[in-house]
């Protein structure tokens, strides 16, 4: 989240797409209710009339996979009707930047496309630079090569008729949403966009979020209370896991992992030169990287050995995200796998094939609270023949959240400590202790090994105790970092250095433990410090800032755009920024000083990117159809995102619209959690929601001869499942490009373990992902539905 949960009460309008917070984030909805009480509006855009839709002021139906068409229409509407915050756009975005001559766009493709490789030469999208290397700009926005004019040209094609025809959203609903949300461009107003997996789990998921960013920057909603782009995380600590480098291509703190396929990454100096921009806060990357290396390798990281840089694994051209890893298992390229609190036999795309892939491993370690479907994939109850599976499975019982202590980071970026309530039962142990003892055992195993393969592990500084229990306080301090000259904990990442005299296990969290006995994630002062930001409750990264980019909430002179949305402002007497939040900016840099208006500090030019030439499929979001679609693309002849990786063969069969004419999507319910391995082992929750079901419209039910509670079979090119029909008014047929298109929806929580069981929805989903993140496309695929005999 750029903002935070409590801040939702300050919004004048909440646009909720790809999310259903009233059901999936119910506690959060108290703040949206507060916003409504304050006169705010709630808009729900969803294929299904959800619990969120039921309490919204405006509901608009949307065919799954057409978010960019919908949002592109809003961009066009805002630009054509001058419903933008122009002063904000000119000064805080790259709207006035001139794009070099290499950029072009024709029939769904940007310039620089290589059809054979399905990749772009992004140098074709470069911005024009002057002799000093700085971007050439036109503050009048009149030059036809400005980002602003190219943006207008790109979305001029997204007219109401075409958008309505593609999305299935009636024109009157489109206009109602566009008009209401674009009202937040007025000074004194702010709108927020809330999203979740319904936005990201598409082949264009990243560009869906980019479209949100464009809208919010045009309207001037980034950095303001009640504004922002706010991702509602699907688990309590997903934010923390990504912050700490569990994304395969990141080190901690979103530092890019060095790759053998990038020649410059062969040395630390080359890596830093390649990855460090000349300006913006990322210009401090060398400090973050060297401090991380010192944190991991301590005395074994010196200037002479590049601070241990060569100890880091450097993947080549292979991708190590979920889909690619399971494809490698399927092709017998991996020997073993550790699965920590994950259940891909239920949660993975094309789950039937992922179950098969596990059978090609020599060994599998599953760390979980119960025996999951994944841990039991080799048993008869899974439909497997145990005599034909040679995978040795180890099930390590893990402690539940209330049986261990430690921090989680919520969607708001708030790092909150939790204390142990009760001891674990039986042999269950905290994850941290399991990995701690594993590290100690491996250290012992590799002792005396002089091979090159062993050196990175032997160089690792594992200093969290020698017994079976890991000292969590020492882990916390390592995350924060030390000044090695004084031996003291660091006050924050501003103190990090690139000379090897500081450490930090994760630079964005530096400052949460600034001195002995002062772990700020344990802060529990619920006094409102102003603006409902509660600065003394927990710790928010970075440096306890509750609203990111809050410099943009003030004008060029440092004055709030309005009293209603004031958060920080320049105090000329004190010569510093003051207000209700920690400035996401140099607190003593005057607005009139060089760089004093660079509101988006993480970008090298200090502005937000309406035009983003780093995205894999293009600098502007463009509508493409999902991998499986019932209709052709109305905007161009390019059907699928041209930069996605297509997995061919048996591992990812593609369904045709003739055989599978119905759109399907997956979602969650309040009563179950993720793959259900926790909630289906709870008696009361199992009793409340004990059956796998599929929601279908009354119209489709009539067409198929299906009645409510009938057993039905849902099939796709990947497999089929049996479930109960829930015939409902919540789905209505879409009119798409002159034809009637039906959509169904189903929860993905069920499997064959626990008190209640049911077929797994993800047996139906395709093995294809977003072009940037590779997140699977769970939210739009084709199926057919029939009554079970």
From TrEMBL:
Q: Which GO terms describe its biological process?
A: anaerobic respiration
Keyword presence, DNA repair: no
The chain positions of domain Molybdopterin oxidoreductase read 2-439
Instruction: Report the subcellular localization.
Output: Cell envelope
Q: Would you say which domain of life the source belongs to?
A: Bacteria
Molecular function per GO? 4 iron, 4 sulfur cluster binding; electron transfer activity; formate dehydrogenase (cytochrome-c-553) activity; formate dehydrogenase (NAD+) activity; molybdenum ion binding; molybdopterin cofactor binding
- Keywords assigned by UniProt? 4Fe-4S, Iron, Iron-sulfur, Metal-binding, Oxidoreductase, Periplasm
Cofactor(s), names only, from the UniProt record: [4Fe-4S] cluster
Q: What is one GO cellular-component annotation here?
A: cell envelope
Where does the Molybdopterin dinucleotide-binding domain lie? 663-781
| Entries under NCBIfam families matching the protein | formate-DH-alph (TIGR01553)
Which family would the database say this protein is a member of?
Answer: Belongs to the prokaryotic molybdopterin-containing oxidoreductase family.
Protein name as annotated: Formate dehydrogenase-N subunit alpha
Native source organism of the sequence: Neobacillus rhizophilus
């Amino acid at each position: 989240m750029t903002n935070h949960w409590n801040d939702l009460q300050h919004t004048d309008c909440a646009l909720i797409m790809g999310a259903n917070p009233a059901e999936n984030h119910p506690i959060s909805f108290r703040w949206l209710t507060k916003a409504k009480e304050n006169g705010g509006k709630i808009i729900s855009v969803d294929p299904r009339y959800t619990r969120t839709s039921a309490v919204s002021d405006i509901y608009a139906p949307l065919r799954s996979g057409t978010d960019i068409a919908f949002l592109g229409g809003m961009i066009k509407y805002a630009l054509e009707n001058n419903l933008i915050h122009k002063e904000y756009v000119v000064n805080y975005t790259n709207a006035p930047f001139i794009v070099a001559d290499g950029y072009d766009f024709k029939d769904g493709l940007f310039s620089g496309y290589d059809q054979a490789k399905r990749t772009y030469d992004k140098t074709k999208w470069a911005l024009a630079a002057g002799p000093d290397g700085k971007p050439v700009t036109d503050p009048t926005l009149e030059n036809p090569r400005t980002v602003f004019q190219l943006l207008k040209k790109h979305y001029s094609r997204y007219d109401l008729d075409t958008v309505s025809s593609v999305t299935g959203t009636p024109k009157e609903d489109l206009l109602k949403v566009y008009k209401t949300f674009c009202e937040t461009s007025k000074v004194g107003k702010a709108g927020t966009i809330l999203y979740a997996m319904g936005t990201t789990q598409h082949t264009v998921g990243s560009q869906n979020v980019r479209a949100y960013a464009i809208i919010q920057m045009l309207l001037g909603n980034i950095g303001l209370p009640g504004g922002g782009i706010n991702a509602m995380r699907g688990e309590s600590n997903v934010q923390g896991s990504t912050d700490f480098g569990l994304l395969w291509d990141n080190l901690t703190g979103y530092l890019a992992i060095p790759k053998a396929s990038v020649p410059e990454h062969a040395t630390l100096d080359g890596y830093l030169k390649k990855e460090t921009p000349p300006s913006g806060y990322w210009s401090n990357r060398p400090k973050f990287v060297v401090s991380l290396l010192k944190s991991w390798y301590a005395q074994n990281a010196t200037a002479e050995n590049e601070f241990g840089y060569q100890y880091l694994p450097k993947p080549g051209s292979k991708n190590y995200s979920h889909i690619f890893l399971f494809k490698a298992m399927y092709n017998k390229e991996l020997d073993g796998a550790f699965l920590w609190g994950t259940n891909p036999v239920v949660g993975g795309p094309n789950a039937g094939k992922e179950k098969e892939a596990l059978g090609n491993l020599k060994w599998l370690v599953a760390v979980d609270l119960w025996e999951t479907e994944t841990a039991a994939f080799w048993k008869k109850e899974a439909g497997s023949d145990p005599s034909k599976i040679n995978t040795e499975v180890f099930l390590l019982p893990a402690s539940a959240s209330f049986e261990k202590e430690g921090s989680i980071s919520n969607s708001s970026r708030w790092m909150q400590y939790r204390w142990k309530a009760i001891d674990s039962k039986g042999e269950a142990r905290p994850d941290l202790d399991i990995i701690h003892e594993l590290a100690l055992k491996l250290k012992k195993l590799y002792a005396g090994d002089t091979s090159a393969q062993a050196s990175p592990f032997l160089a690792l500084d594992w200093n969290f105790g020698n017994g079976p229990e890991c000292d969590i306080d020492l882990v916390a301090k390592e995350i924060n970092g030390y000044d090695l000259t004084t031996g003291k904990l660091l006050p924050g990442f501003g103190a990090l250095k690139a000379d090897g005299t500081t450490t930090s296990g994760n630079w964005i969290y530096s400052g949460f433990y600034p001195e002995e006995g002062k772990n700020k994630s344990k802060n529990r002062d619920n006094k409102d410090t102003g603006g409902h930001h509660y600065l003394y409750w927990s710790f928010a990264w970075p440096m306890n800032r509750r609203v990111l980019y809050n410099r943009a909430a003030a004008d060029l002179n440092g004055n709030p755009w309005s009293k209603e949305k004031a958060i920080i402002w320049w105090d000329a007497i004190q010569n510093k920024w003051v207000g209700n939040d920690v400035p996401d900016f140099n607190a003593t840099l005057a607005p009139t000083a060089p760089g004093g208006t660079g509101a988006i500090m993480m970008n090298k030019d200090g502005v937000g990117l309406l035009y983003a030439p780093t995205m894999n499929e293009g600098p502007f979001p463009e509508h493409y159809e999902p991998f499986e679609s019932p209709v052709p693309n109305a905007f161009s002849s390019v059907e699928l995102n041209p930069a996605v990786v297509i997995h061919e063969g048996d591992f990812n069969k593609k369904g045709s619209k003739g055989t599978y004419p119905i759109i399907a999507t997956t979602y969650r319910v309040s009563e179950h959690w993720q793959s259900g391995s926790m909630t289906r082992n709870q008696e009361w929750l199992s009793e409340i929601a004990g059956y796998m079901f599929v929601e279908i419209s009354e119209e489709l039910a009539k067409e198929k001869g299906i009645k409510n509670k009938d057993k039905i079979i849902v099939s796709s090119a990947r497999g089929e499942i049996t479930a109960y029909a829930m015939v409902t008014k919540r789905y209505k047929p879409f009119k798409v490009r002159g034809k009637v298109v039906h959509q169904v929806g189903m929860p993905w929580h069920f499997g064959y373990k626990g008190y209640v069981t049911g077929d797994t929805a993800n047996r139906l989903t395709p093995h294809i992902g977003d072009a940037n993140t590779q997140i699977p496309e769970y939210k739009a695929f084709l199926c057919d539905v029939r009554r079970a005999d």
